[in-house]
């Protein structure tokens, strides 16, 4: 069985930094080995170094995407960091939002397998009561986006979904799908999933009232954080809010938004 050497690990550190701007700490060698080992074996490579050469050759773009997917996939769950959703609910229930005619647009900018985006969609549908809204969710991983579009999750993922939302927006699988949660079709169809690399110029996404950029900045170095945040803030409408993870901060990264409360910022 191939063993990842320190020299080979440094190659994959460079690979994922160049592909996605992610800085892998030296302590992540075991993670890289466990996530890529099956691909090394399935591709018939004799070592991790040989697998890296396959990726670097330019002749296997699909395998490059698979490797990126494996090295960037992160765990998430419904209604993670509940206080962000409480904050958003309070704003949505203000008279100014009730009176607006334009659609409320929210971007889940590192949406992973979709739980965050569907959590946002449930909240918007509940609070806006028939008024227009749109959720755009993006991730660099094609594999997790495919899972997100399906809207199908193990039932244990439902533990943080409010009971009223669970009954209104979700279905429980039957037969072979027992113990499976399925997001209701009409809600699913109102969330648009796109493959986006935050470490590259953004596609034309339009502007947003709210951007969730949570639990992704911790993987970037300072220069990459500044570049990513600048791109994301450019999509925010004046007065819009930017949410980052509870362990993240924009201190020394940007002065284009103002801290409202820890991990929540507003564009003037």
Question: How would you describe what is shown here?
Answer:
The structure is a single chain. It is built from 11 helices and 10 strands. The model has no long low-confidence stretch (mean pLDDT 92). The strands form 2 sheets. Strands 6-2-1-7-8-10-9 form a 7-stranded mixed β-sheet, sandwiched between helices. A 3-stranded antiparallel β-sheet has the order 3-5-4. The chain is of the alpha/beta class and 268 residues long. The termini are far apart. The protein has 2 domains: 6-72, Chemotaxis receptor methyltransferase CheR, N-terminal domain (Chemotaxis Receptor Methyltransferase Cher, domain 1, Orthogonal Bundle), CATH 1.10.155; 82-266, Vaccinia Virus protein VP39 (Rossmann fold, 3-Layer(aba) Sandwich). It is globular and about 65 Å long. A hairpin with a 7-residue loop joins strand 4 (170-172) and strand 5 (180-183). The protein has helices at 6-20, 29-42, 48-56, 61-72, 82-92, 95-99, 115-128, 142-150, 163-169, 185-188, 222-234; strands spanning 104-108, 133-139, 152-154, 170-172, 180-183, 191-195, 208-213, 236-244, 258-261, 264-266. Helices cover 42% and strands 18% of the residues.
Question: What's the layout of helices and strands?
Answer:
Elements: H1 6-20, H2 29-42, H3 48-56, H4 61-72, H5 82-92, H6 95-99, E1 104-108, H7 115-128, E2 133-139, H8 142-150, E3 152-154, H9 163-169, E4 170-172, E5 180-183, H10 185-188, E6 191-195, E7 208-213, H11 222-234, E8 236-244, E9 258-261, E10 264-266
Parallel strand pairs: 1-2, 1-7, 2-6, 7-8
Antiparallel strand pairs: 3-5, 4-5, 8-10, 9-10
